[in-house]
């Protein structure tokens, strides 16, 4: 047997301990024990290193997969990234080889210890098995991860790629280096391709040949191996379905059976059958998100004679899905209980630290250990919840995600509690450890006194030696290595037929476990509270935007999502530590993606909230404050800054910048509503504690009026709902549900120009041009109709035949009136309007649009006059300023000033005639020979005028009635539209040839003459009878009404002709 490894400690007593002359019993008792303790400590350290390398391997594998998906068939960049990870693969190979060497050494020490020791303590051997099987578990996990990884599938291409590079002339390596690389790649390939566990079993088989075990040693090893398997089975049956959440014990049992099978240790038939039946219940145990492990298949791969090949793994049964729902409900119940327990624990911690710890060390130690158990419980709940759904291939629902957020909130709460009391905990922890060690030393002293009852001297000497070793180990600094030695030494005199009673043994175990847990508190609490297990299933936490929106909308507190984002940020930092290759472009981290999703949703949702609050006075049904639950979004905004690659993302600042830009843009687009946005800015400060920056835009005055941009966007509504007055140059609203009518004048246009700038005039004229195109399409379609076109051609022939006659001085009124009656026979619209009424409205809307262009021109001149007040009265030129060597800022200001002056002259000069532009834009189209149906438009003008006059008289007569919804005092848009169309069609002279004004004058004079003749004849026939007097009075009233109508018609005709004459001036 090789000489045992000795412990070398800093303590003086430890350094001189191995130099003492010890008897053979002391040597046999101490050296194997210290060797096994040292190997157990190595197993723990190697297990931690293996877990870190597992995370790094998973991250490299994921990065390579993302790169392959982005590049598609391009394989060479992926292979280049694999070359950057060769250093990591070498570290991985050396670590796994070191694990195999340590496990071989442990088996050598175990077999030597069994062959030398007269009576082997089962508890002591179980402690060694626990440390060894924990390391073998990580070896199995690594074996499965590498076997099912993307790196293993790309490894063959990588080898061929390196061989092709070695043969090329561009290779900068000699043959010796290439041979060394080839040898190293062969060694690494055994690790990458998932063969490491097979290599470990083969190494055990080779070491078995050199052990030379005796029959007694084999029987003892068989006995203890079967006992340990029985112990693992008891733990598995006790937890049952919990192994889907944490398959640790199943991994350990499966690996231990394969290891004993390879060593040739005979297993009990019933025990083996029970173990295989138990393992066969579990299928697709999740080791990571993509890797699933089945115990039956693993045993069939490494111990074929023990099991038969299994069929295809069954799908999750309904019973398992029902069990999944029950476990989820149980976790929710446990989460609620944990919330209450953690609250009480935090209060107790604060109270204990406030009153002083030295007077209540026992309760303080209990609180620390209780907090540590809460942390372990929460971590197991989080990992178990995710593994459970991955194992059964079920997606995580919203309730599960909120549960994870709540559990992460608990971890953050405990981390905050430990961080706030870090100085106190560090100060009192050493006192607690000394107190626990003192209790162990008192028990050891009592055990020495009870040794006089032992009759066997050899047995007594062995136990005393163990006690002496335990005392020396407990004196030094309490750490994991020393406590491992103490644990092995204590197991020598714990158990059946030992000198201690059952109560003392239980107290020994309790003190050792408590001391070990307190030692773990000396490690950084950040590593225990960061939920590192989530890294294995990081992709499952990628919740979509809808889930986050639902959370923010339903939850009053953002602490859950805050802690979820904090945990993701912590995991991103951990993954960035493990990265050895450059991440592909576009690979966004989960914490940043979740942050951007929440920021986007909160921006739009809070904007809607502020808008509703600003307009709450318009709602008829007010919410009852004691019945409606309001949502406080301030906690969502108070999110801690997230750091990524040295940059901090602050949600509050991003929301303030968003609202600043939004209020500025909205105020610029709709300055008339600037008070609403100012109120929203005020509510953002009061309700959400945000401080958007003021826009400092020129606010509108009281008589600002409707904005030009708003009219431009709704020009089709504006020209149909507003009436134009040419003399006053203003538009008045025809009908409104409010108590007042809106008015748009030249001053209002000037205000809009001053607010938005000079560029809106040309843009508005372009919009009006597009609108006129649509209206002229309707205009042309109406005149192209067969009924209209035929009647107009008839009128055209009549006018052509009679216009040269001496008796034909003007177009007859009767023909225009007959034309209206014929059009009325074609039908009416649903509103009761004839086609002539609708056509008149089209002409009126065209005239309103042209009148609005005139109003824009007048408003622009008004704005130009206002802007001139800021100019110098003397027409100075700044061209000479370039020779004076002025400052750059001064020169740039001068250039900007001259540019603004030039723009004013260009936009607002009198040479810019928009009427001519509108005429020139449409004349080529309407004067086209293909549009012959438009050449008779001037003949429909008399009928349009009659229709217009009748409508105006009717409106004015009904103006004073309460039931009248519309009220129109003027409608000059018809006159402007008629003259504009006649000028565009070049039919104004033809219209004047009709002498329609003379026709209407003669018509009105004839009606008035007829009334006078009727009155004169009535005076001659008057009689003194009462009946005749009554009839005469009614007749006079009728004649008075008729005369009033004639006067009204005459007044409207005179106003129309005056307006037509004025409108002709615009287009000269």
From TrEMBL:
Residues 583-874 form the WASH complex subunit 7 central domain. Residues 2-531 form the WASH complex subunit 4 N-terminal domain. It holds the Pfam family WASH-4_N. GO terms for cellular component: endosome; WASH complex. GO terms for biological process: endosomal transport; endosome organization. Residues 890-1068 form the WASH complex subunit 7 C-terminal domain. PANTHER family: WASH COMPLEX SUBUNIT 4. This is CG13957. It comes from Drosophila busckii.
């Amino acid at each position: 047997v090789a000489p045992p490894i000795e412990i070398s400690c800093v303590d003086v007593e430890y350094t001189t301990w191995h130099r003492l002359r010890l008897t053979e019993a002391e040597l046999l008792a101490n050296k194997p024990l210290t060797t096994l303790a040292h190997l157990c400590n190595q197993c723990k350290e190697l297990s931690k290193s293996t877990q870190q390398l597992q995370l790094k391997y998973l991250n490299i594998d994921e990065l390579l997969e993302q790169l392959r998906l982005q590049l598609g068939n391009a394989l060479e960049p992926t292979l280049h990234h694999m070359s950057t990870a060769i250093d990591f693969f070498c570290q991985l190979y050396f670590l796994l080889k070191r694990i195999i060497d340590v496990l071989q050494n442990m088996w050598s020490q175990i077999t030597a210890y069994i062959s030398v020791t007269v009576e082997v303590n089962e508890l002591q051997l179980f402690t060694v098995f626990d440390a060894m099987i924990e390391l073998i578990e990580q070896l199995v996990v690594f074996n499965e991860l590498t076997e099912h990884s993307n790196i293993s599938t790309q490894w063959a291409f990588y080898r061929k790629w390196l061989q092709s590079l070695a043969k090329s002339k561009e290779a900068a390596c000699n043959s010796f280096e290439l041979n060394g690389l080839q040898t190293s790649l062969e060694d690494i390939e055994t690790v990458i391709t998932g063969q490491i566990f097979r290599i470990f079993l083969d190494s055990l088989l080779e070491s078995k040949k050199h052990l030379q075990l005796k029959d007694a040693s084999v029987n003892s090893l068989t006995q203890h191996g079967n006992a340990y398997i029985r112990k693992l089975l008891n733990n598995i049956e006790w937890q049952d379905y919990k192994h889907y959440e944490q398959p640790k014990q199943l991994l350990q049992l499966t690996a231990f059976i394969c290891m004993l099978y390879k060593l040739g240790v005979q297993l009990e038939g019933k025990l083996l059958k029970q173990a295989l039946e138990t393992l066969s219940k579990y299928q697709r145990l999740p080791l990571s998100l993509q890797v699933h492990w089945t115990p039956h298949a693993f045993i069939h791969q490494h111990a074929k004679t023990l099991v038969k090949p299994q069929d295809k793994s069954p799908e999750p049964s309904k019973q398992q899905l029902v069990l999944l729902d029950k476990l989820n409900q149980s976790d929710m119940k446990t989460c609620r209980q944990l919330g209450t327990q953690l609250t009480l624990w935090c209060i107790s911690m604060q109270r204990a630290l406030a009153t002083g710890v030295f007077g209540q060390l026992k309760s303080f130690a209990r609180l620390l250990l209780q907090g540590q158990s809460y942390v372990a419980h929460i971590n197991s709940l989080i990992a178990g919840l995710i593994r459970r759904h991955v194992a059964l291939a079920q997606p995580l629902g919203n309730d599960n995600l909120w549960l994870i957020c709540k559990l992460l909130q608990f971890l953050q709460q405990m981390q905050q509690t430990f961080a706030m009391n870090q100085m106190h905990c560090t100060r009192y922890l050493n006192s607690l450890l000394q107190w626990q060690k003192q209790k162990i030393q008192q028990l050891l002293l009592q055990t020495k006194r009870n040794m006089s009852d032992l009759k066997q001297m050899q047995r007594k000497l062995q136990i005393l030696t163990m006690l002496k070793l335990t005392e020396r180990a407990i004196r030094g600094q309490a750490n994991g290595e020393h406590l491992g030695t103490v644990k092995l030494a204590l197991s020598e005199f714990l158990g059946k037929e030992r000198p201690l009673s059952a109560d003392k043994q239980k107290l020994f175990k309790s003190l050792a476990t408590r001391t070990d847990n307190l030692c773990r508190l000396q490690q950084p609490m950040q590593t225990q509270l960061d939920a590192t297990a989530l890294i294995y299933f990081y992709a499952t936490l990628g919740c979509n935007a809808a889930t986050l929106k639902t959370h923010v909308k339903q939850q009053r507190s953002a602490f859950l999502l805050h802690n979820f984002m904090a945990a993701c940020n912590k995991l991103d930092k951990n993954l960035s530590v493990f990265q050895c290759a450059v991440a592909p472009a576009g690979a966004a981290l989960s914490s940043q993606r979740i942050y951007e999703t929440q920021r986007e949703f909160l921006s739009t949702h809070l904007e809607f909230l502020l808008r509703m609050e600003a307009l709450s006075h318009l709602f008829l049904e007010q919410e009852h404050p004691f019945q409606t639950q309001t949502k406080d979004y301030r906690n969502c905004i108070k999110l801690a800054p997230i750091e990524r690659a040295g940059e901090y993302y602050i949600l509050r600042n991003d929301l303030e910048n968003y609202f600043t830009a939004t209020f500025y843009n909205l105020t610029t687009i709709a300055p008339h509503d600037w008070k609403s946005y100012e109120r929203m800015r005020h509510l953002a400060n009061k309700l959400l504690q945000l401080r958007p920056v003021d826009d400092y835009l020129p606010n509108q005055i009281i008589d600002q009026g409707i904005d030009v941009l708003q009219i431009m966007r709704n020009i089709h509504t504006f020209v149909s709902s507003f009436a134009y007055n040419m003399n006053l140059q203003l538009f008045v609203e025809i009908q409104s549900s409010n108590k007042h009518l809106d008015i748009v004048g030249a001053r209002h246009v000037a205000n809009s120009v001053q607010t938005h700038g000079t560029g809106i005039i040309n843009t508005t004229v372009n919009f009006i041009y597009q609108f006129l195109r649509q209206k002229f399409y309707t205009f042309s379609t109406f005149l192209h109709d067969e009924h209209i076109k035929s009647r107009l051609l008839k009128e055209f022939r009549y006018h052509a035949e009679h216009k040269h006659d001496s008796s034909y001085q003007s177009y007859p009124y009767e023909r225009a009136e007959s034309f209206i009656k014929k059009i009325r026979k074609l039908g009416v619209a649903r509103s009761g309007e004839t086609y002539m009424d609708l056509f008149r409205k089209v002409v009126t809307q065209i005239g309103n649009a042209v009148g609005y262009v005139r109003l824009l021109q007048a408003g622009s001149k008004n704005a130009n006059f206002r802007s001139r007040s800021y100019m110098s009265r003397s027409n100075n030129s700044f061209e000479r300023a370039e020779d004076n060597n002025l400052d750059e800022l001064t020169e740039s200001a001068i250039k900007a000033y001259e540019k603004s002056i030039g723009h004013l002259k260009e936009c607002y000069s009198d040479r810019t005639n928009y009427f001519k532009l509108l005429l020139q834009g449409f004349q080529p189209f309407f004067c086209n020979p293909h549009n012959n149906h438009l050449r008779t438009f001037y003949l429909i003008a008399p009928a349009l005028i009659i229709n217009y006059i009748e409508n105006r008289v009717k409106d004015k007569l009904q103006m004073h009635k309460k039931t009248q919804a519309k009220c129109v005092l003027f409608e000059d848009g018809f006159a402007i539209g008629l003259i504009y169309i006649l000028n565009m069609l070049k039919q104004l002279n033809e219209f004047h040839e009709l002498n329609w004004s003379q026709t209407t004058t003669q018509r009105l004079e004839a009606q008035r003459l007829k009334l006078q003749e009727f009155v004169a004849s009535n005076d001659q026939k008057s009689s003194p009878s009462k009946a005749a007097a009554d009839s005469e009075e009614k007749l006079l009233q009728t004649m008075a009404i008729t005369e009033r109508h004639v006067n009204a018609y005459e007044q409207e005709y005179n106003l129309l002709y005056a307006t037509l004459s004025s409108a002709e001036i615009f287009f000269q």
